[in-house]
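Let's sit down with a protein and look at its sequence and fold side by side. Once you have written the record down, we can walk along the chain together.
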Amino acid sequence: MAPSVSRNWRVLALSLAGLVTVAGAVFFLALGGGSYEAGVQTSPPEGDSVGLEIATTGVVPENGALEILALPRATGNRGQDLSNGAYFAYPVIFNLDVAVGEATVEVPGSSVRGAIPAQVALSGSIGSYPFDTYGASLFASASTSLSGQGANFVLSETAEAVPGFDIDGSRVGFLSGDGSPLALQRDQEAGYGVIEWRISRSSSTQFIAILLAAIMVAGAAISLLMTWVIVRGSRPPSVAIMVWLAVFLFALFQIRRQLPGDPPAGIDLDRFIFYPVILTLILLVVVNLISWSTREDWDLENPASVPDPQMAHERVNREA
């Protein structure tokens, strides 16, 4: 095969590979920055009821917290739903098993109560970022008087997505632990309910993190290849190579800061990719510096040369 034809095939193959890579990137980025899948929802009762509508507002793995917003609800003789809360005709007490926020919320009769911000504890570790997964649960109950009498309590989810995370919420029975409609109906009549969440990074977040990690690894591989060529003597050491290595070394810290979600230092991606690449580049800078400083032709204006004895003898004879 002629060299020009072979070169054309290589260019075509590289172009196709680039198109496939770009198409894959667009596909993963088009999956969205986050999603929420709600579980089984119990039907609102026809009679009097109170309830809480739970919306997730943030996931903070560094603090081990799932931020939520509990929106009070009331129907029938108990009150009336509003856009940001509910009007309660009779007193009601809400109890929330939360890590941060109001655990007991007393609402007097003939009053309006707005949304209740709180935080639920997350179980899981951020060490495996961007493939880290978490779990969380919320127990909530309501009573219609200070005596603790149970209310017809409706606990529901609002499918509010959190950017950067895929959230799967589900209602489960407090005593039975299953999500059957019968178990949820019993909890509703008893005046309490439980929501469980399973949380993971979104596909787009994982793709961007993998792409940035690939840039780090590719940069280290290219730097190793250039240094190997110089050490073998195929190319001379130069200041330009050392400048390139130094620039890429400091650029790595900026690349690390672009990871979605701003994960803390010490994650697995740091231990297995970022830190080894940093150490590799520092070593390569040292190797290139030694190679450049020991080259014999460092003075381009006065290149070093070893005189040939035969030529020197002939020159002396000509001068004589």
